[in-house]
Design goal:
Order of helices and strands: HHHHHHHHHHEEHHEHEEEEHEEEEHEEH
Largest sheet: 3 strands, antiparallel
Number of domains: 4
Distance between the termini: 83 Å
Number of strands: 13
Low-confidence stretches: 292-341, 357-376, 440-445
Mean pLDDT: 75
Shape: elongated
Helix content: 40-55%
Structural class: mainly alpha
């Protein structure tokens, strides 16, 4: 936009002179400027540009004071600035705000900008940093903070100055800053605690999701615990190729097992969390088919020696899969997690290596006639003996996972008649226990 600056006012004549000088400079053969002078001329132009910016803000501020926009139909000074300069909405609004601040409070910044000692971007960062200071602090403290930033702007670029500005109050008033930061953190922590949530969902066949939201401090604790369990572990084919997020997920599964195995694990109705699994006994022996996990709140399962394995909560079975009279809903060679998702018999075999089983005898109508007592397949004394024998760590080659992380694994699975004694047991970390049951064909578990 061409604007007539012809005026009897001295400033108009000066601006005309600046325009003429720039025209002359543009016609100069820059290619002939000696290399030794390029840096000096460049730095001088940047300084003069900053001085021009200071003059522009003076004009914007005066236009705002005079409410020039009211005589032009513009809704505000910012709109008027856009009309005159083709600035963007955000740029024009920021120019008006900075012009007001330079005139009202940022006196050191205004002086430095008009002298070319700081750039427009530096001035904007100083304005931003000063706006973050508490409104009720001593004006002298504010002035000290501004002066400190102006001084730092002689050394640091605008992005670096922003980082310094974020810590400005801690520098100029450290004691009060600590108090205010503590109060702010306390408010944020109370708000975060009130918004804690855990959601369990599904993400497709066989996979579930957990969404958690809680305070960052606890999130850091959780991350630290999982990270300690997520170290790479070599497998039968060499180095651990799992990506970090997968190792974290596997570590979470391992962590769940550690929590369940803890002596002070939480209970519900006096019973520690367990899993109810439904799977035909013949499929559990044969490593094929699949089973059902019914609940993690009670670990009651009924084993039918005729071939069926039915959870007490399931009801009656059928003749093919272990029911006595062929009536009632079929159990089949499948299983479900609490929401009904099937799991493989191989996975159930791994689970039952170190599980609690409540044997039950079913009558012809499927009713429970006798319910046995819970039996931990490997007792704590047996697990300790396995640790003493195997060096207190996972027995997989080159794995040093501590015994407290390990599962007690049956070399000959209990479903195949394997005894629960030290000679038939070995400690395996969750990663290698899973590998034995899911990846090594022909392995017993």
């Amino acid at each position: 936009m061409d604007t007539d600056t012809t005026s009897t006012h001295p400033l108009g004549a000066v601006v005309d002179g600046v325009r003429d000088s720039l025209d002359e400079a543009a016609s100069c053969p820059i290619w002939s400027l000696p290399d030794a002078q390029l840096g000096g001329v460049l730095a001088q132009l940047v300084r003069e540009r900053a001085r021009l910016d200071a003059l522009i803000f003076d004009l914007v501020r005066q236009a705002d004071v005079n409410a020039v926009h009211t005589g032009t139909g513009a809704a505000s000074t910012a709109v008027w600035v856009r009309q005159q300069t083709r600035m963007s909405r955000a740029e024009a609004g920021g120019a008006v705000k900075l012009a007001k601040a330079l005139d009202a409070t940022l006196h050191s910044t205004k002086k430095a900008l008009s002298q070319g000692r700081v750039s427009l971007r530096h001035a904007q960062e100083i304005h931003l940093a000063m706006g973050k200071l508490p409104a009720d602090i001593d004006p002298d403290v504010k002035a000290q903070g501004e002066a400190a930033l102006v001084e730092q702007a002689q050394t640091f670029d605008p992005q670096e100055l922003r980082a310094l500005g974020d810590r400005l109050y801690q520098v100029v008033a450290p004691n009060d800053a600590d108090r205010r930061i503590g109060e702010q953190l306390a408010r944020e922590e109370r708000k975060a605690a009130a918004s804690r949530t855990v959601y369990f969902g599904t993400a497709g066949p066989g996979i579930g999701t957990v969404t958690m939201r809680f305070e960052r401090a606890y999130m850091a604790q959780l991350h630290g615990m999982l990270d300690a369990l997520a170290k790479p572990r070599p497998g039968p084919h060499g180095r651990d190729t799992r990506p970090y997020d997968r190792r974290l997920a596997d570590a979470a599964i391992e962590w769940i097992g550690l929590a369940q195995a803890a002596g002070n694990a939480p209970t519900r109705g006096g019973t520690r969390p367990r899993i109810t699994a439904t799977v035909p006994f013949k499929f559990l022996r044969g490593l094929h088919g699949h089973g059902v996990i019914h609940t993690t709140l009670q670990a009651t399962a009924t084993l039918n020696p005729d071939g069926g394995c039915e959870a007490c909560v399931t009801g009656r079975g059928d003749a093919e899969n272990g029911g006595a009279d062929g009536s009632g809903p079929k159990v089949g060679a499948f299983g479900k997690v609490p929401d009904g998702i099937p799991v493989s018999a191989r996975w159930l075999r791994m689970l039952t290596c170190d599980a609690e089983i409540l044997p039950a005898v079913l009558g012809s109508d499927g009713a429970i006639l006798d319910l046995g007592t819970g039996t931990r397949l490997f007792t704590s004394n047996q697990r300790h003996a396995l640790g003493e024998r195997d060096g207190h760590h996972c027995n997989f080659p080159d794995c040093q996972a501590h015994e407290k992380w390990c599962h007690a694994h049956h070399l000959i699975h209990w479903a195949d008649g394997g005894p629960t004694d030290i000679g038939n047991g070995v400690l395996l970390c969750p990663t290698h226990h899973d590998m034995i049951h899911h990846e090594l064909a022909g392995a017993d578990g």
